[in-house]
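$ run holo --ligand "magnesium ion" --emit tokens
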Amino acid sequence: MQPLAVSCECRKIEKLKNEWKSSGINTEMSTQTFSNFEVWNESSEFAKEVAIAFYNDFKNIRNNRQNSILFCGQVGSGKTHLSVALGINLLDKKIKVVYMSYRDVLTKIKRNMLDDEYYTKIISKYQTCDVLLIDDLFKGKVNESDINIMFEIINYRYLNHLPVIISTEFTVDRLLYFDEGIGSRIYEMCKDYVVEIEKSQENNYRLR
Ligand SMILES: Nc1ncnc2c1ncn2[C@@H]1O[C@H](COP(=O)(O)OP(=O)(O)OP(=O)(O)O)[C@@H](O)[C@H]1O
Ligand SMILES: [Mg+2]
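-- output --
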């Protein structure tokens, strides 16, 4: 029985990798790796250190209250780069990491909101995966239904101690202001691994 179970797990990982690819991230030849992440100033040094520490600690902390990581702040500072590097490294360890491009996914969910079956299925995918990578949380205009959808996902993961990797241009204070219920849960889950990059063009790799 064992080999069958293993190959089933491997198939699930392959399927996830294909989903990553259709979001534009090729897991085999991604340029967004730890080794390609240049330490070019203080904030990139700190961000890389925290990301690698999280990766090294992951096995021991994954079921804890504090089991998640938050990259927030300055645009173009490598938040997505490090989130993706982490996600791919964990996928390679056979951990089922789902990539969620916040804006694309929320648009898709809201377009299909009246289809109960679809709604339950898609929400539960983001609620129950081993690790959820939310890229660019709260990008664009945020309305009540965005908040409700994100609360359903975050609260489920919070209650079940399921890790998240989050990238967002909003600081912790701003996340709390959007919605204290979501923001404070995220903060509690991520508080051992918060990378808040100061908003300054000096920290924008694209403008270096
Ligand atoms: N320290 C770095 N070393 C190498 N490449 C980097 C570094 N920081 C950023 N980059 C590259 O710069 C580009 C922008 O980085 P990234 O998309 O990760 O930024 P971001 O903080 O997520 O920005 P945004 O808020 O716009 O989403 C990417 O191509 C990324 O690979
Ligand atoms: Mg980004």
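-- notes --
Residues 79-80, 136, 167 surround magnesium ion (ligand 2) (CB under 6 Å).
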